[in-house]
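Annex B.
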Amino acid sequence: MIADDEKGHDLDLFCVPRHYEKDLDKVIIPHGLIMDRTERLARDIIRDMGGHHIVALCVLKGGYKFFADLLDYIKALNQNSDKSVPLTVDFIRVKSYCNDKSTNNVRVIGGDELSSLSGKVSLISDIVETGRTMETLLSLLSECNPKMVKVVSLLVKRTPRSSGYRPDYIGFEVPDAFLVGYALDYNEYFRDLSHICILNDQAKEKYKV
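Hypoxanthine phosphoribosyltransferase: predicted structure tokens.
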């Protein structure tokens, strides 16, 4: 859990692209910590779901980096432990943001083939804020009659706007701030940032559409 009063880390302590140096307040989750936590999530998934077929569903675009790293760790565990998880992958794209605001309109793109999903489904997300986007996806998946749906989210945001939804696996619980990096974006910028950082107000205006 990342506390609301977490001071974070100075940008000078990390390798941050020069074109973003003036856009960020601080590093809140360094890349190394993300990787360690993701490895533990992979171990928990293998422990709970080992032996069952999983269709790993990547939520694009913000979830692609977490998805790739998590699957790399699961693959390594498959090769080096007694319990393993057969994996296939699929992709879906979701859009619910305008600038720094989560809208009430959740657009799902690429869900036409979800009817082919069966067995266990591990739904990979990037960040759960209000929970409405995930609830929409779960409703869509339920129409496909999977045996089980498990949600793993790298981040869950503490916010009064939350619907109360909680994923099955959580990487970090974070304050109600706008976070970028590690594939999380602001109008498509900052996906190329390795660490998860807090965006400053100047940057919100600079990259506003």
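The helical segments are 31-49, 64-80, 132-142, 201-206. The radius of gyration is 17 Å. Further annotation is deferred to the next reporting cycle.
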